[in-house]
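Review form for a predicted model. The reviewer records the input and the model, then writes brief findings.
Reviewer: anonymous (R2)
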Amino acid sequence: MLVGYSDRMLLARQVRNVRVGANRRQGQGYDGVGLMSKDNTNIRVVHTSDPEATLDVVEDSLAHLWKAVDDLSRIRPPKQEFYRVTIFGSARMLPGDRIYQKTRRLAAMLTDLGADIVTGGGPGLMQAANEGAALGDSENQTRSFGLPIELPHEEEANPFVEEIYRHRTFFTRLHRFVRLSSAFIIVPGGIGTTLELMMIWQLCQVKHIRTLPLIAIGEMWSELVEWGRDHMLSYDPPLAAPEDLELLRCVADVDEAVAIIEQDIRVFNE
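Model under review:
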């Protein structure tokens, strides 16, 4: 596992407070940590006065932690109980903007079909989607989720989020988006939105998540796919397979996206 220098130093400082249980029970002062051998039988004492060995313990422990997380993530219910649509989009749009109103309408229509709405929980088009979910759920039958991340310019979740899951890293946030969602819709956005799209796109490509609706609304996304065809497929061998570029379904407007989701909801409910 690769850990940045500053992170390594922080972790090294943290492990200085580690004590071994056996020595605690004996009432002895101790300034070391245990390092398990590869066959998990012998413990070698490592003193924090040896920073390299200490960092080896930390990195080994983190590697085991990630393995545990990976193993736990394999556990899934046999069928999702709720159909949920994640909407990715710009944080910069304002309520008076045309695309804000379209995104709000999109979420309202999806909620009317019985879908929960999931967003990043921030302002702009995330707020538009959560607001639309509230407008479309007059009988309080669905839920509106927000997954805000700690950023200097986005401190609070927007006021229309019903259930909040706060995250400190983009990695854990992406993982929760994937676990919650039955479909993804991408509306216009910047670098962050593009990153979210690309990560989900790649997970679909390598089949780390099942095939699900991945829909992009607007000309900017169809031009992105055309760029991929022009450049990725022009190499010999190609940098991507033609079918990879077909995983993203580009549509012109909200109504086309809703029609695709409506059909998928019917299959989901069968």
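Findings: The beta strands are 32-36, 43-47, 84-88, 116-119, 144-146, 163-164, 183-186, 214-217, 249-251.
Further findings: DSSP finds ten helices and nine strands in the chain.
Recommendation: see findings above.
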